[in-house]
Amino acid sequence: MNEEVEFILDTTKEAMNNAIAHLEKELRTIRAGKATPAMLGNVMVDYYGSQTPLGQVANVSTPDPRTIAIQPWEKNMLQPIEKAIMVANLGFNPMNNGDIIMINVPPLTEERRINLAKQAKAEAENAKIGIRNARKDANNDIKKTDISDDLKKASEADIQKLTDSYVKITEEKLAIKEKEIMTV
Predict the structure, then answer these.
(1) Between residues 30 and 103, which one has the greater pLDDT?
(2) CA-CA distance, 3 to 86, in Å (whole number)?
(3) Are strands 95-96 and 44-47 parallel, antiparallel or unpaired?
(4) Cβ(22)–Cβ(169) below 8 Å
(5) Neighbours of 143 (CB within 10 A)
């Protein structure tokens, strides 16, 4: 196979892997019944004037399936962390006891589970869009090369096979997350 075509295929595969990695990261932040530190992964704390991820200013743990404990490394960070959790609008009510912040994760209602499943589906659709965009870019790059028409057609077929396999991976990850969300 042509070196240029191989480079285009490798670049496309990398872009599609990035779309899957982003999907996995987004699905981890969608809660599915039990408490995980990843639920607070997007919380940014005002740390002496700069926005810093919560994990860099405190230890986040889950002592049991319904509780998240946040132990700041500096006592004076309790208020900013509490405020950041409220601003993140995650639906949690943090309780500050002077040493650590505790969050009781309420059980999901059926309506909330359906909304979270829709959110997961939207993230999967975003991943598919990223995969299809990578396919479009690759096909455009193939058309710009000065290779034979037969090789162009074969390369486009390879790109389509790659796209189909990554869309299938996306569907599988979504199915797993939906099952996790809907399990009571």
Answers:
(1) 103
(2) 53
(3) unpaired
(4) no
(5) 11
